[in-house]
C-alpha cells in the first residue's frame, strides 16, 4: 500500500498556488526503484526515477545536461531520505538535491544555484520499514513523498551474506582478468587465485580484510590481472593495481553496478586541469607560448614587488636613517652616470639616481605585463579558433545515431570549447604566477625582518580563513538566492507576455500580478540580508588589513625588529604586505 508522508515543516512564504499541487494520496502499485538520473544546468532541471520494469517517473522539465553520476541502487538498497533545496519556478525541479539510502550512502547534486541556506532546504524521511519510491514536487517545492513498505532483504536468512548495516564500512575488491589458458584449474581454484575471466566483485566489512584479499590477488602477478579496492560508502576507488586501461574498465563496470560514482563533469580539479593543460599543449608552439607567458608573468610579478621596495626608499629618501641601506640600489648608478654627473660634486647624486631607478623599475614592470597581455591574448584566441573548427568538424563527422540519442542542448554544450580553453590557458598560468608572486613577496619580507614577516603571513592566513572566507561563502549563498528569485520573476513576466490573449480572454490579470507581487516581496525581504552582509564584509575586510599591519607594528615595537628595520624598509614592508594580501585573495579566487 502506498503512503504519502510530509514531515512537519514550518510554514513558508511561497508564491506558488496551493491549488496547483498534485493529489498523490491515491494508491500506487509498488515498483522497485532501480536508478535515479539527474539533468542539470544552473539548477536541477529534471529528476527521473527508473523502476525495475523500466518505467519512469519524471519531475521537472527536459533541459540541461545529464549528470554522469547516476544513482544506481545495489541489491537490497533503497531510498530512505531526501533533502531538497527549493527553487520556485515553472520548469526546474530543484536548486539542489541529496538522496540518502538505507546503506548510509549519500548522493549529492549541487549545481551553481545551490545555496545550502537552512530556510531553503526541506528534508523528508521515509517512515520506519518503508522506502521512497517517488516524489511530489510542484514548482520547485518538495511537498511530500510516496512510500512503500520495504521488501525482505534477499539474503536475510543467509548468514554468510547478512543484511547490510548502514553504520558499518563497506569495501569491495574488484578484479578483472582477460580470457586465460589455465585449463587445468577448476573454477574454485581460479577464483581463489583471482583468475576468473571478466570482472568479479567481493564484498568486505573492513578495510583490513579487503586489503588482505587485494594483496593475495596481486601477489600472483598474472598477466592481465587488474585489482581494485572500492570504498562503496564514499563511492570511490581507494587502491588499484594493473594496467591503466584495465583499471578504467573495472571502474566503469563498478559504476554500472552502483558500487562507485563517476567523476563530476561539472567540477574541474587542479589535477584534471593540469592534465587538460598538457593535452592542450600538444603542439610545440603551444609549449613555447605557455613557457613564454609564464616567464613574463613571473618577471612582471618580481618587478612589481621590487617596485614596492624602491617606492619605500623613494618616499623616505630625505630621512637620514634610510641612507644605511643605499647599497641595495647601487645597480642604478651606471644608468645614472650615462645621463647625469657622477663626479661626486653633486650632493643630491644618490637621490637623483634613486628617482631614475624608480622610473626604470616601473616602466620595466609595465612593459613586461603588457608584453604578456599581447602574446597571451593572441595565443589564447588562436587556440580557441582552432579548437572550435576541430570540434565542429568532429561533430559533423559523427553518425546519425549520435544526434538521435543526444539533445541539441547537450550537443551545443559540448561544443563550447572556448570555455574550457579559456579556463585552462588563462586561469592556470595566472594561478601559477600568483603562487610565484607570493613566494617572492615572502622572500622580500623575510629579507627585511624574519619576525615581522612571520607575524604578517600568519595574521593574513588567520584573517582569510577565520573571517573573510565564511563571509564570502555566506555572501555567495545570498547572491544565489537572489538569482533564484530573479529567475522566477522573469518567468512570470515572460509567461504573462506570451499569453496575453488567454489572460485577457479569461480575465486572469490578478492571478499573475499577485504572483509577481509576492515574488517582489520575497526579493525585498531578501535584499536586507544581502545589503547587511555586504556592509559587514567590506567593514571586516578593510579593518582586517589594518589589524594585521597593526600587529606587525606592535611586534616591531616590543620585539627586536625596531633596531634593525629602517624607515625605508618599513615603508617597503608595508607596501609588500598590502600586495601580499591582494595576491592571496586573487590566488584563492583562481584556485576556486
Automatic annotation (TrEMBL):
Positions of transmembrane segments: 290-309, 355-375
InterPro entries membership: ABC1_TM_dom, ABC1_TM_sf, Jacalin-like_lectin_dom, Jacalin-like_lectin_dom_sf, Type_1_exporter
Ranges where the record places region Disordered: 1-23, 145-169
Pfam families reported in the protein's UniProt record: ABC_membrane (PF00664), Jacalin (PF01419)
Sequence ranges assigned to domain ABC transmembrane type-1 in this UniProt record: 291-587
Keywords: Membrane, Transmembrane, Transmembrane helix
Compartment(s) of residence: Membrane
Domain of life: Eukaryota
GO molecular function term, any single one: ABC-type oligopeptide transporter activity
A GO CC term attached to the entry: membrane
UniProt topology in membrane: Multi-pass membrane protein
Name the record gives this protein: ABC transmembrane type-1 domain-containing protein
Organism field: Triparma laevis f. longispina
Amino acid at each position: 500500500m502506498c503512503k504519502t508522508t510530509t514531515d512537519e515543516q514550518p510554514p513558508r512564504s511561497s508564491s506558488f498556488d496551493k491549488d496547483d499541487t498534485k493529489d498523490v494520496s491515491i494508491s500506487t502499485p509498488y515498483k522497485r526503484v532501480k536508478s535515479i538520473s539527474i539533468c542539470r544546468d544552473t539548477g536541477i532541471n529534471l529528476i527521473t526515477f527508473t523502476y525495475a520494469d523500466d518505467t519512469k517517473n519524471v519531475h521537472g522539465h527536459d533541459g540541461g545536461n545529464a549528470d554522469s553520476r547516476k544513482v544506481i541502487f545495489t541489491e537490497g538498497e533503497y531510498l530512505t531520505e531526501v533533502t531538497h533545496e527549493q527553487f520556485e519556478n515553472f520548469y526546474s525541479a530543484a536548486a539542489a538535491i541529496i538522496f540518502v539510502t538505507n546503506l548510509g550512502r549519500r548522493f549529492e547534486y549541487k549545481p551553481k544555484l545551490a545555496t545550502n541556506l537552512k530556510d531553503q532546504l526541506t528534508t523528508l524521511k521515509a517512515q520506519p520499514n518503508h522506502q521512497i519510491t517517488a516524489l511530489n514536487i510542484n514548482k520547485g517545492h518538495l511537498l511530500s513523498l510516496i512510500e512503500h513498505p520495504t521488501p525482505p532483504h534477499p539474503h536475510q536468512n543467509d548468514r554468510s551474506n547478512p543484511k547490510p548495516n548502514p553504520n558499518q564500512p563497506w569495501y569491495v575488491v574488484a578484479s578483472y582478468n582477460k580470457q586465460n589458458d589455465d585449463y587445468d584449474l577448476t573454477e574454485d581454484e581460479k577464483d581463489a587465485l583471482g583468475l576468473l575471466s571478466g570482472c568479479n566483485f567481493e564484498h568486505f566489512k573492513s578495510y583490513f580484510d579487503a586489503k588482505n584479499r587485494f594483496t593475495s590477488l596481486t601477489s600472483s602477478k598474472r598477466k592481465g590481472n587488474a585489482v581494485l579496492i572500492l570504498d562503496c560508502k564514499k563511492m570511490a576507488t581507494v587502491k588499484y593495481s594493473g594496467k591503466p586501461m584495465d583499471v578504467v574498465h573495472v571502474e566503469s563496470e563498478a559504476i554500472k553496478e552502483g558500487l562507485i560514482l563517476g567523476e563530476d563533469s561539472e567540477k574541474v580539479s587542479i589535477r584534471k586541469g593540469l592534465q587538460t593543460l598538457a593535452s592542450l599543449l600538444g603542439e610545440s608552439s603551444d609549449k613555447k607560448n605557455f613557457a613564454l607567458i609564464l616567464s613574463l608573468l613571473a618577471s612582471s610579478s618580481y618587478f612589481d614587488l621590487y617596485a614596492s621596495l624602491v617606492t619605500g626608499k623613494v618616499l623616505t629618501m630625505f630621512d637620514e636613517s634610510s641612507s644605511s641601506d643605499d647599497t641595495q640600489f647601487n645597480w642604478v648608478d651606471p644608468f645614472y652616470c650615462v645621463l647625469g654627473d657622477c663626479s661626486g660634486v653633486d650632493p643630491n647624486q644618490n637621490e637623483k639616481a634613486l628617482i631614475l631607478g624608480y622610473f626604470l623599475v616601473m616602466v620595466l614592470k609595465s612593459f613586461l605585463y603588457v608584453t604578456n597581455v599581447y602574446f597571451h591574448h593572441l595565443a589564447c584566441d588562436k587556440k580557441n579558433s582552432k579548437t572550435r573548427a576541430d570540434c565542429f568538424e568532429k561533430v559533423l563527422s559523427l553518425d546519425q545515431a549520435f544526434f538521435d540519442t543526444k539533445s541539441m542542448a547537450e550537443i551545443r554544450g559540448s561544443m563550447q570549447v572556448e570555455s574550457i580553453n579559456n579556463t585552462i590557458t588563462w586561469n592556470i598560468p595566472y594561478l601559477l604566477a600568483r603562487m610565484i608572486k607570493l613566494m617572492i613577496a615572502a622572500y622580500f619580507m623575510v629579507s627585511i625582518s624574519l619576525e615581522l614577516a612571520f607575524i604578517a603571513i600568519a595574521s593574513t592566513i588567520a584573517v582569510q580563513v577565520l573571517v573573510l572566507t565564511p563571509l564570502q561563502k555566506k555572501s555567495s549563498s545570498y547572491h544565489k538566492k537572489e538569482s533564484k528569485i530573479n529567475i522566477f520573476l522573469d518567468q512570470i513576466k515572460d509567461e504573462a507576455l506570451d499569453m496575453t490573449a488567454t489572460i485577457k480572454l479569461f480575465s486572469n490579470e490578478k492571478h499573475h500580478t499577485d504572483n509577481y507581487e509576492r515574488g517582489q516581496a520575497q526579493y525585498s525581504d531578501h535584499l536586507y540580508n544581502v545589503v547587511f552582509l555586504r556592509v559587514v564584509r567590506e567593514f571586516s575586510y578593510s579593518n582586517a588589513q589594518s589589524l594585521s599591519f597593526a600587529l606587525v607594528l606592535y611586534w616591531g615595537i616590543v620585539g627586536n625588529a625596531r633596531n634593525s628595520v629602517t624607515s625605508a624598509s618599513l615603508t617597503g614592508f608595508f607596501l609588500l604586505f598590502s600586495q601580499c594580501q591582494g595576491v592571496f585573495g586573487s590566488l584563492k579566487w583562481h584556485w576556486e
